[in-house]
Amino acid sequence: MKNDSTRRRTPGLRREEVAALSGISLAWYTNLEQGRPIRVSEQVLESLSRTLKLDKDEKSYLFLLANQWLPSDSVLEQKENGDTISSALQLILDELHPCPAYIIGNRWNIAAWNEMAAEVFGYSYDMNEFERNIIWRMFTRDDYRKLFVNWEYMASGLLGQFRSFYAKYTDDPWYNELVTQLLATSSEFQEWWPRHEVFSIPEGNKEMNHPKLGNLKMDYTNLLLAEEKNMFLTIFTPQPNTGTKERLTLFSNKVT
């Protein structure tokens, strides 16, 4: 039998083939394999993921090793399907009652909420896409200016958080359309947007004067969902000794 010296001893792609298919140099890919301190861009990691045909978990692990935030594939996915959550997540929201809680996606659209959040913030299932957006609601609704004590502080802080997300999705035309509409609609947004202020505030507090529930003082926490890395769960908990818990509980008992 003829000895085929070109036959591979192990299956799979050679190092130079991986580099070529991923559009990177062999030397650079070798340095990456050897764990040398090189800068790895999101585009390179995406290319390697496609070349190596990584599944979702393997791709997540690759980005984790490279100290990179795994980008959501939802820019295209959201245009087709919108933000969706599992029935298990909705159950968690409902069980948090009477604490208001909701989930937002990477566009800061409200994907799901519980009954108390609907009452406190005025959410309903007939909202259009802009009306589901937290930034749009904050800057365009007159009732929000009355609802939030120290509205300017709340709105400017929320805008700083939103900009940190906006920077990751500048190629998404939906984001650009939202900003364009807000610039034309809100004088405060028009004034504050050019400041380029960025905030990362995973927790804080809000005080509200609700027309039905009265004065509410609540702390809030934002939790990144492990399986949906473009989505956050926001939970509002009543501050002690403010009467907020009692008012929320009383209202909850009336509607259940």
Automatic annotation (TrEMBL):
Alphabetized Pfam families for the sequence: HTH_31, MLTR_LBD
All residue ranges annotated as the MmyB-like transcription regulator ligand binding domain in the record: 86-249
Classification via InterPro entries: Cro/C1-type_HTH, Lambda_DNA-bd_dom_sf, MLTR_LBD
The protein's name: Transcriptional regulator with XRE-family HTH domain
Lineage: Bacteria, Bacillati, Bacillota, Bacilli, Bacillales
